[in-house]
């Protein structure tokens, strides 16, 4: 006979009834974590985002590094103006301008004065062949030409206005 108000076992209980009343083991917990399929989907999404973001970021860096060439050429322009005030012609020698290196400040470009006369000069910046700007095929070579108070920037697309 079973006493329904008491939770213990009684003389009439069978082994199966005891198991129902007092299980000896708990049921297995629900599995935790991610399945292989879920992880592969996450990896695919990250890969897709990276394939879109990395080229855009590289392009952004190349455009930002162009400022290094522009700043170096602006310095040469200023020094050419000072030099010409005291001389009969512009110079192609950077040392005459007080510039002791042909490399831009950040080292991405090599700066040179490719031509100089009494009324004109051309400053050129060429991306260092082993540097990251060498891959900037559109603007690996930039120049500023000054002729009789007219300034020409080439290529025009490389000069942010």
In short:
The protein has about 160 residues and is an alpha+beta fold. It is about 35% helix and about 15% strand.
Q: What keywords describe this structure?
A:
161 residues; alpha+beta; four-stranded antiparallel sheet; 2 helices; 36% helix; 17% strand; rod-shaped
Describe this entry's structure for a reader.
The chain is α+β, with helices and mostly antiparallel strands and about 160 residues long. The chain has one domain. Helices cover about 35% and strands about 15% of the residues. The protein is built from two helices and four strands; from the N terminus they run H-H-E-E-E-E.
* Amino-to-carboxy terminus distance: 97 Å
Rg, nearest Å: 38 Å
Low-confidence stretches: none
| Mean pLDDT reading | 85
Number of strands: 4
- Order of secondary-structure elements: HHEEEE
Strand content: 15-25%
> How are strands sequenced across the largest beta sheet?
1-2-3-4
* Biggest sheet statistics: 4 strands, antiparallel
Counting DSSP H or I runs of 4 or more residues, the number of helices is: 2
Structural class: alpha+beta
How does the overall form come out from the CA principal axes? rod-shaped
